[in-house]
Amino acid sequence: MKNMVITGANGDIAREIARQVKGYKLILMSRDISDLSGVSDYLYQVDLSNEAALVATCKQISSKFGSIDILINNAGYGEFRDFLAYSSDDIRKIFEVNVFALMTVTSAFLPDMIHKRTGKIINIASIASYMATAKSTSYAASKFAVRGFSDALRQEVFDDNIKILVVNTGPVVTKFHQANPGYLEKVGRHAVSAGFVAKKIVANLNTNKRELNLPWQLNIARLFATLFPVLTESMTRRFFNLK
């Protein structure tokens, strides 16, 4: 069986991927693994913001399983409030999980992929990496960083036959928004389910697709934003600043 590592495995999208995928040995990393029993036999509890512990855990996984065939960097964190309401520690915490941990895990497993000349890395970003909205300054900045890192890395490892897929989602019905329950009610039909996102990811495990932008309505909005940035900002101030 091929090896698949998923970070943030306690999240709803990760759980759906684990439920839907077939033919992979699931190696799950999460800050809390207490309710992951039955999902996989290979569970690793680690705080992704603790770099030393994260590096040690990745080494342990590599030692036990060898090369990883698919790495899904799913772990993500965000808080939504006015920029001046963030402390510097708040901002660092978001970047520690969303960016630096993602890079650390990628750095740990990439050399074996390059050595075998096969592998795929899937980074969960956000439509916010294209269309930032009010009260998402730190979160959007971190997701811009994820997409930029992914696009650059894709070019570096192209000749090594390593594929990089970025998944940019709009609002997803998950516990990610549990601190702001009114948000999902406001976005209504524009929100998609974790199962839907997982299905799209699983369907593209073996494709060369470089980016998934979900749902299709927000993908169109993303393209519009690229062509008409001033008009888009005017529209987002009116319709998308719902956090």
Task: Give the secondary structure arrangement, pairings included.
Layout: E1 2-6, H1 12-20, E2 24-30, E3 42-45, H2 51-65, E4 70-73, H3 88-116, E5 119-124, H4 137-156, E6 162-169, E7 172-173, H5 181-187, E8 192-193, H6 194-203, E9 211-214, H7 216-227, H8 229-239
Helix pairs in contact: 1-6, 2-3, 3-4, 7-8
Report Rg. 18 Å
Shape, please? globular
Largest sheet: 7 strands, parallel
Separation, N- and C-terminal Cα atoms? 42 Å
Task: Identify the strand order in the major beta sheet.
Answer: 3-2-1-4-5-6-9
Overall pLDDT metric: 91
| Helix-residue proportion | 40-55%
Strand content: 15-25%
Oligomeric state of the chains?
A: single chain
Low-pLDDT ranges = none
Assign the structural class, choosing from mainly alpha, mainly beta, alpha/beta, alpha+beta, or little secondary structure: alpha/beta
Written as H for each helix and E for each strand, in order along the chain, the element string is: EHEEHEHEHEEHEHEHH
Helix segment tally: 8
Number of strands: 9
